[in-house]
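Lab intake sheet, docking and co-folding queue.

SAMPLE TYPE: protein with bound small molecule
LIGAND NAME: magnesium ion
LIGAND FORMAT: SMILES
REQUESTED OUTPUT: full 3D complex as structure tokens
PRIORITY: normal
SUBMITTED BY: R.K., bench team

The fields below were copied directly from the construct record.
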Amino acid sequence: MATIIALANRKGGSGKTTSTVNLADALARKANRVLVVDADSQAQATISCGILPFQLTASLYELMRRAAKRQMLEGELDTAVIRGHKPFDLLPAKPDLAALEIELASASDNQVLLKDLLLGWENIYDYILIDLPPALGLITVNGLIAARWLIIPIEPTFLSMDGLAQMTGILYRINAGLNPDLGLMGILPVKCDLRTNLARSVIREIQQNFGENRLLPPVRPDIKLAEAPSFGKTIYEYAPSCRGAFDYKQAAAAILTRSGD
Ligand SMILES: Nc1ncnc2c1ncn2[C@@H]1O[C@H](COP(=O)(O)OP(=O)(O)O)[C@@H](O)[C@H]1O
Ligand SMILES: [Mg+2]
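RESULT FIELD (auto-filled):
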């Protein structure tokens, strides 16, 4: 059974996409079958994997539309997934995904479409990582209903604490209603320089509010992590011995432990 993990934070630039792609690669290199679902219309996870969104004929957009019309065809899922390009598979996004929020507004059961889609893949993958957009629309709700676990990547600044409080509020609301099983796997500090007072005090505050064990091992600032996507490469393809690669390996190990492997 696949462990489905959503990476979400309402704040943009908080490391969702960087973390999704590099954690997926780190997990895949530990002999896990991994699928990345790019659920952000900015398609940055897709682009980070070296795929040009405008060339795609099939993406998450087409699949969700079809699912909404209850027209899913056998094998349809498989045509959209990009395999053999990375150590993990990718269900790509393209900008059309932005229109989905409006197109599906009146569809019935429009919050469980992604969950239904992924049901067909639960036995094919060990991990499914969903990169969510920085908004609380229908797609994010779909992601949080499909997932068993939530990871909240944050950059440790004081303003990010606000976003963190909002995300946990959303988690409780999803728990109370549409997905009681969704759990907080952890808060993942990124661009986190523990030599600074600011990062240390924000981390301390997170520990006090959420408990020591809700904190995933932090990822330090590393320019290589910002450079890799422009070559369509993960950090393990671009600079496997840099500290970003090391840090995401540590975070992936913590994910393996927490998901009960
Ligand atoms: N540990 C890191 N060190 C340096 N730059 C990083 C790190 N993590 C992310 N970045 C950069 O920060 C920016 C925002 O990250 P991104 O993953 O795109 O956030 P989000 O998906 O939440 O919007 C990107 O330019 C990315 O390359
Ligand atoms: Mg992103």
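REVIEWER NOTE: The pocket of magnesium ion (ligand 2) is lined by residues 16-17, 40, 44 (CB under 6 Å).
SIGN-OFF: pending second check by T.M.
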